[in-house]
Write a structure and sequence with these properties.
Elements (H helix, E strand, L loop, with lengths): L3 H14 L2 H12 L11 H14 L3 H14 L7 H12 L2 H14 L4 H13 L3 H15 L6 H18 L5 H14 L1
Length: 187
Amino acid sequence: MLTEDDVDDIVIKAAGNGRHDAAAIRFEELAGQSRLHGEEINRASLLVDAGGQHGLAGDWDAAIRCYREAIADGGAQTIDPRVWLHDALLRRGELAEAATLLKQLRAARSQDPDFYAAVAESLEAQGLLADAHTWFTMGYHRCENADVPEFLLDLLLVGRRRVRASLGYPLDDLDEFAEDYLAAAGD
């Protein structure tokens, strides 16, 4: 059975040698070998990993294909693969489809701070700062009473503060929490 360590080895090797295309191909090959799949690593997770490597190689069409296959597979994931599809669509310039998918992601009402951070950071990377602000803020409010580690909420607020600074917004109470977290983390 494949483990997280096996996946990490492929990712680390690609990061070292820059052969993200080869890593993507390897992940797709492994996705097709169900006898190697278990609870920890499954076809969908391997397709998401393949999509990530295709993206790092600049092949957004292949990344989108892998993410769509992961979604269709429906296997358990750490983060909903639609988040990664949304990012790839934005990077590919498929803005109408990305906007439709963003509405679906919002309607999912996840209580996972990483879900919101990933969407917000993707929007931020594309210069969609007002949308990124919305997602950081929404993520904080939807997750603040969830059973999640406090630092994940703090990281949402740090991202929100960063975007608000870029937008020229004045400090508010949530920004103060972010500033306090950063000050404590710096100690």
